[in-house]
Design a protein that fits this description.
Structural class of chain A: alpha+beta
CATH topology of the largest domain in chain A: Aldehyde Ferredoxin Oxidoreductase,  A, domain 1
Low-confidence stretches of chain A: none
Distance between the termini of chain A: 35 Å
Low-confidence stretches of chain B: none
Strand content of chain A: 5-15%
Helix content of chain A: 25-40%
Radius of gyration of chain A: 22 Å
Number of strands of chain A: 17
Radius of gyration of chain B: 11 Å
Strand order of the largest sheet of chain B: 2-1-5-3-4
Largest sheet of chain B: 5 strands, mixed
Oligomer: heterodimer
Strand order of the largest sheet of chain A: 2-1-6-3-4-5
CATH class of the largest domain in chain A: Alpha Beta
Mean pLDDT of chain B: 95
Number of helices of chain A: 23
Strand content of chain B: 25-35%
Number of helices of chain B: 1
CATH architecture of the largest domain in chain A: 4-Layer Sandwich
Largest interface: A-B, 41 and 20 residues
Shape of chain A: globular
CATH architecture of chain B: Roll
Chain lengths: 576, 74
């Protein structure tokens, strides 16, 4: 039977608890948000002992279901001041699920300055004082933990940014190649730092594995599901070939590629940083064009990017990072962007927040537009070292905007707006405004239908249908985020009729239950309302469901589009 | 009339990134697609001057036509 592992960092004790009946049907985001809402005072300081950091694998994680190896991390966010769930690949989710750990809850905070590591295994969690690895980057931590505890050990770690409690700090997860995937958004690395935990090791030895109630039914559904993923042109061919970065050229053509801190919608240097160019560069240098972030991923949207000498630079090199450091900062040197991506992994800082931040920093005059060398210097010499400037930069886009008096600061609920201009792709603007997470494209990815003709088509430049589109996608995403599934299963799920029923059949076969499509929709609605309720109690109300004013007053080329939704139209989102 | 034709992702294989094309007045997007040796089913996104177009959209002098297979990311 699955258990809850609970760690108290105030008195340095650990417990194994039964799963309360109310939590039994939950996993992933549904579970982390339920636990945070139930146990964290909404008005607490996110870096205080009252906040809790919760990790939960999804409902299907640890089973043979394709693409089910995502781990959810939840807490009150020090960046947004609201509830946060951030999910990532890597090896940890499947290890935790196979150990029978429904959730790992970390509460309290040490009363002294001592730092710790947590060792998770089949018999529970031990808390060990940690001295040796403090101050190190994430790559060195992973190497050291493997040397100490063995190559197969799972690792969740924070870099210098998390230790310094920067609000853009992330939590890194070891991937199958001992490289890094990230719980990127919302500053969860700072929450882990506030608990004075440098890393969590996971020992899978003796794990009982995941029991499936109806193995035959599961096998049949898993086969249908995997076929849908491979048959759809986006998940079966586009993503493995070009990765997510194929979007640079598409958004540039559509005039929705935010450029020079969101002042225009097209970037002159787009071709040099595009997915097509990246694909050819990776192939020519002997990197890997496709790569999975977790075992059992059959989409393989990730990649390994090498330098001119064929040496590893980075992996998991995503569109949003490349857009942000590229178009938004006017940098057209993909090698420098790759180097920065690697540094951000090592420092343990969110590559979306940091990329948006650099756009604001350039506007503030901290560095010049397009100056990739100075950007690399700021990462290594200021942010990684925690200088006063580094701490301002490590606080994200909002922090730099406030400190330097910049008015064009693309954030919602203080979280940086990613990669798609909400004036010329209006559905995503509704998602940015209303998401319980702050500006988060993944929480209701309308780009699918606004730009990519997946799940139908809703004209990105008109207001019609956008609120409904964003609402339906946010509800579906909250449910999918609870299964442990990669969000890219949404592409086949939107177009191939057998895909979603097969996903539900797998959940039913895993637990011996009989959920319907309506039950899953209701789960998504329930999660959104629960998160919204936490946010409202934390002081984030409908006045925070708004985009910055400049989107209303500054038309963006080439379509000269503005953000023209009224407050009442935006608030209609919550009418469900 | 003259248009600018841009190809993306796998459509570039054995073809080109960008080219000027001389076309008869009233040519539809579909004719350009078939002329490239592509099928209608292979077309994911048609963009005409930065806005979504259709296979039966009529082209005009000076247009920029961009063709993408069905791809995505995020």
């Amino acid at each position: 039977m699955d258990k809850i592992f609970r760690v108290n960092m105030t008195d340095l004790t650990t417990k194994i608890e039964e799963v309360p009946a109310a939590w039994a049907g939950l996993g992933g985001r549904g579970l982390t948000s339920t636990i945070v809402a139930a146990e964290v005072p909404p008005t607490c300081h996110a870096l205080s002992a009252d906040n809790k950091l919760v990790f939960a694998p999804g409902l299907l994680t640890g089973t043979p279901a394709a693409n089910s190896g995502r781990l959810s991390a939840g807490a009150k966010s020090p960046l947004t001041g609201g509830i946060k769930e951030s999910n990532a690949g890597g090896t940890a989710a499947q290890m935790l699920a196979k150990l029978g750990i429904k959730a790992l809850i970390i509460e309290g905070a040490p009363k002294t300055g001592a730092w710790y590591n947590l060792a998770v295994g089949v018999n529970g969690v031990t808390i060990n004082e940690e001295k040796e690895l403090l101050g190190l980057g994430n790559f060195a931590v992973i190497d050291a933990v493997e040397a100490r505890l063995g190559k197969k050990t799972g690792v969740l770690t924070i870099g210098p940014a998390g230790e310094l409690k920067m609000t853009a700090a992330n939590i890194s997860v070891k991937d199958p190649d001992s490289k890094i995937r990230s719980h990127g958004r919302g500053g969860l690395g700072a929450v882990m730092g506030s608990k004075q935990i440098k890393f969590i090791s996971i020992d899978g030895e003796g794990a009982p594995g995941v029991k499936i109630a109806d193995p035959e039914k599961f096998k049949g559904a898993a086969k249908v599901f995997a076929k849908a993923l491979l048959d759809h042109p986006v998940s079966g061919e586009g993503l493995p070939t070009y990765g997510t970065n194929v979007l640079v050229n598409i958004l540039n053509e559509a005039g929705g590629l935010p450029t020079k801190n969101f002042t225009v919608g097209q970037f002159e240097g787009h071709d040099k940083i595009s997915g097509e160019t990246m694909h050819d560069t990776i192939a020519a240098r002997g990197g890997k064009v496709k790569h999975g972030c977790h075992a059992g991923c059959i989409i393989q949207c990730s990649q390994v990017y090498n330098d001119k000498d064929g040496k590893y630079v980075t992996s998991g090199f995503e569109y949003e990072t490349i857009w942000g450091l590229g178009a938004d900062c006017c940098i057209d040197n993909l090698d420098d962007i790759a180097r920065a991506d690697n540094l951000m992994d090592d420092i343990g800082i969110d590559s979306i927040e940091t990329a948006v931040m650099f756009g604001v920093a350039m506007e503030a005059g901290i560095l010049n537009w397009g100056d990739s060398k100075e950007m690399l210097r700021l990462l290594t010499e200021e942010i990684a070292k925690g200088t006063a400037l580094g701490r301002v930069l490590g606080g994200g886009a909002g922090s730099v905007g406030r400190t330097y008096g910049v008015t064009r600061v693309p954030v919602v609920k203080n979280q940086g707006i990613p990669a798609y201009d909400p004036r010329s792709v209006k559905g995503i603007g509704i998602t940015y405004a209303t998401s319980t997470m702050g500006a988060d494209h993944t929480s209701g990815y309308t780009i699918a239908t606004n730009i990519l003709n997946v799940g139908g088509y809703v004209d990105p430049l008109k207001k019609d249908g956008q609120v409904e589109l964003s609402r339906n996608l946010q509800i579906a995403t909250a449910a999918v985020d609870s299964t442990g599934m990669c969000i890219f299963v949404a592409f086949p799920a939107l177009d191939i009729p057998e895909c979603l029923p097969a996903l539900i059949d797998m959940i039913n076969a895993r637990f011996g239950i009989a959920l319907t499509g309506d039950d899953v929709t209701n789960l998504g609605k329930h999660i959104l309302k629960l998160e919204r309720d936490f946010n409202q109690k934390a002081g984030l109300t409908s006045v925070h469901d708004r985009l910055p004013d400049f989107f209303k007053t500054e038309p963006v080329a080439p379509h000269n589009a503005v953000w023209d939704f009224t407050d009442a139209e935006i608030d209609e989102f919550w009418n469900f | 009339m003259k248009i600018t034709l841009k190809l993306f992702a796998t459509f570039r294989n054995g073809r080109f990134k960008i080219a000027e094309q001389e076309l008869a007045e009233g040519t539809e997007v579909r004719q350009v697609v078939l002329g490239l040796g592509l099928t209608e089913e292979e077309i994911g996104i048609v963009m005409l001057n930065g806005r979504h177009g259709e296979l039966d959209s009529k082209l005009a002098n000076g247009d920029t036509l961009s063709l993408f297979p069905l791809v995505g990311g995020g």
